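Lecture 7, part 2: worked example. A protein chain together with pyridoxal-5'-phosphate.
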Amino acid sequence: METVLDINITRVENSKLNDLNLENIPFGKYFSDHMLEAEYENGEWKNIEIKPYQPLIIQPSLAALHYGQSIFEGIKAYKDTNGEGYIFRPYDNFLRFNLSAERMCMPTVPEEIFMDGMKQLVAIDKNWIPFREDHSMYIRPLMFATDVLLGVRPSDTYKFMIILSPSGPYYTTPMKIYVEEKYTRSVKGGAGFSKNAGNYATSMIAAKEAREKGYDQVLWTDAIEHKWLQEVGMMNVMFIIDGVAVTPELSEGTILNGVTRNSVIVMLQEMGIEVQERRLNIDEVVEAYKKGLLQEVFGTGTAATIAPIQELGYGDLRMPFDVSSFKIATALRKQFDDIRYSRIPDTHGWMVKV
Ligand SMILES: *Cc1c(COP(=O)(O)O)cnc(C)c1O
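Predicted complex, written out as C-alpha cells:
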C-alpha cells in the first residue's frame, strides 16, 4: 500500500471482528475497528488520524448541534474472490461532498484526505468487508461544525471523519411509495442537491405519515404545484414508460445527483434503452399507468442499490405493479451486482482498488 498522505495511525489491540459474524447483518448497525478523523482550524486541515473507533467528547454548545452545519456521504466497498477490496466510484462522492460543503458554508476537504484517507482506512479494516451477495461495507464520510459558540454564523472549526459499517441489504422487500403532496423536501434555491443533515430531519415526518398509510417511503414532488416528481427518500427514481427510461432532471438543484442514478443511466444507454432526463409530472405517470404503458418503477441509491417499487399511491389512487415482470430493473441489478462483485470486467473504471 503506497502512503501518499501523512496519517497518524493507531491500531486496535484486539479486533472486534472476532465477536461478530458478518454472515447476516443489518444495514448500518455495526462499525469496524477504526475511524478516520481530521480537524479544520485556522484555515487548514490538520491532525489527520486513523484510530480505534470510539466516542467523541463534545460540548453542549457545539455549533453543529444547534444550526446544523453537518454533511455526509454514502459509499460502498466490496471484495472480489481473491479477497481484494474495491470501492465503488468514490471520486464522484468526493466531488459531491465538497459541493455539499460549499452550499453549507463549510470548508472543502482536500482530495488527499478524502480519497487517500478513505483508501487507507478501508485497507486497514479490509477484513470487515463482507463477502456475500447483497452485502458490502458502507463507508460514511461526514463533516460537522465544531465551534463552541451560540452565535449564528459559519463555524471557524470543523471535524471531518470517516466511519465504516459492514452492512446487509437496506430494503429486503419491494417498496410501496406514496406521492407526497403536503410536505416539501426541496425547492429551487434550497439545498436539495446537497447531502446535509437537515434535509433528512425535515423529511422524516412525511415518511412517518406515509408509513401510517401503509407505505414505506414518499415520492417527493415540487414545492409549488406538488405535481413535478423529484426523488424517493434516499434514492433517485426511474420510470420505464413505453420502453423509454424517464427520470427527473437535475437542473433545478432540487434533487441529489446520485452516483447510482448516473451509473444506471450509463448502463441503460449501453443496453440501447433511450434515457430521458427531464421534468416529469405525476399526471403523465398516472396516465401512462392507466394506458398500461408504465412498465417499471424503481429507486436507485448506494444504500438500496436498485430497488423495485411494487406500489405507487397518489391520493386515493393505488397503482400496484408486478415487480417480477420488471425486466429492465432486473437486468440492471444483475449487471450492477456483477460489476460490484467483480464477476465481469469493470469497463467503466468504477471500481477503485484499496
Ligand atoms: C444519497 C441520496 C441519493 C442517492 O445517491 P447515490 O449517490 O446513488 O447514493 C438520492 N437521494 C437522496 C436524497 C440521497 O440522500
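DSSP finds seven helices and 18 strands in the chain. Residues 74, 195, 231, 234-236, 256, 258-261, 300-302 surround pyridoxal-5'-phosphate (CB under 6 Å). Keep this in mind for problem set question 3.
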